[in-house]
Amino acid sequence: MMICFNSFGQAPDIEWQNTIGGNEFDACKGIVETPDGYFLGSLSYSGISGDKTDVSNGLSDYWLLKLNKEGVIQWQNSYGGDGYDHLYSLGYCNDGGLILGGSSSSTISGDKTVSSLGQDYWLIKIDSIGNIQWQNSIGGSGSEQPYSVFQTSDGGFIIGGDSIQVYQGIKLRHHVVIMIIGW
Length: 183
Hints:
Elements: E1 2-6, E2 13-18, E3 26-34, E4 37-44, E5 61-68, E6 73-79, E7 85-92, E8 98-104, E9 120-126, E10 132-138, E11 143-151, E12 157-167, E13 170-181
Antiparallel strand pairs: 1-2, 3-4, 4-5, 5-6, 7-8, 8-9, 9-10, 11-12, 12-13
């Protein structure tokens, strides 16, 4: 559910609200305001159903929606491969596009053109109309989840998340990871 309201030193009045989803589990992971509306980033287990008009690529996908200022869906895209692809964060970029940060266990398939060693960070840079400009998979043989990603003032990106390394079923290390990607 998305609710938009204004508050100027008083109890807020709801301007509009909208429930968006398909027939399976869909979870909002972030909202970014743009000059003409909003980007809504979710993870989705739904195929085409309800409000979801884009096919599922695998077991779960990143699901990105562009909404106008009234919360009406303008367009939507699913991004994923044949496995589990979970979006955790999205950030607005100075070119009007987005950086999407999540984790992926998918092989090279569907939209995924880079391989993973385990459940790795999967970063996707898209333009303002949802086209993939580039993508990168970062991680080791364990499980990595990026929980925050955004563009830095010099045009690079900063990512914050965690990494869990497991050997023969035993969790060896759980690390906080901060990484900067520069151009």
